[in-house]
Design brief:
Elements lengths: L1 H19 L7 E10 L4 E2 L7 E5 L2 E5 L4 E9 L2 E9 L8 H11 L5 E6 L2 E5 L5 E7 L1
Antiparallel strand pairs: 1-2, 1-3, 1-9, 3-4, 4-5, 5-6, 6-7, 7-8, 8-9
Length: 136
């Protein structure tokens, strides 16, 4: 009688550990909502189609006038970006937005991510800066 209970407990613990290491689904297209100071993020420019795409370890996007891309790796609720390359045009209207977003993504360290329904938040390693996205 005790063995079935132990087996159920063991299966329950195994299921919980599998859920805790599950990677959130960030694949697809995301629209930039806001960026910058975590306590008071700056809204994305409404006249600029700012978006990021995640697909099987590859990331690309445009948050102003420059396109960029690189690789990403998920580990639970953390993401690490590497090899990010960008075109180098200067556009005064969008430069603050580009710098704000790319400074978080190019941290090359494990960044905290949170997926909540149709929203994705990427937080800098120091917790001071965020990139907020909405699923397209």
């Amino acid at each position: 009688m005790k063995k079935p209970h132990l087996l159920l407990i063991a299966l329950f613990i195994l299921a919980l550990s599998a859920c805790s290491s599950a990677k959130p689904d960030i694949s697809g297209d995301w629209k930039l909502v806001s960026y910058g100071n975590a306590a008071n993020p700056t809204p994305a420019l409404p006249t600029v189609d700012s978006s990021l795409q995640f697909n099987n370890g590859q990331m690309s996007g445009n948050v102003g006038c420059n396109g960029f891309g690189g690789e990403y790796k998920l580990n639970g609720d953390q993401i690490t970006f590497s090899g990010i390359m960008s075109t180098l045009m200067f556009c005064e209207e969008t430069s603050a937005q580009e710098q704000g977003v790319l400074s978080v993504l190019s941290d090359n360290a494990a960044l905290q991510i949170q997926v909540n329904g149709g929203s994705l938040t990427i937080t800098s390693t120091d917790g001071d800066s965020v990139v907020n996205l909405a699923r397209k």
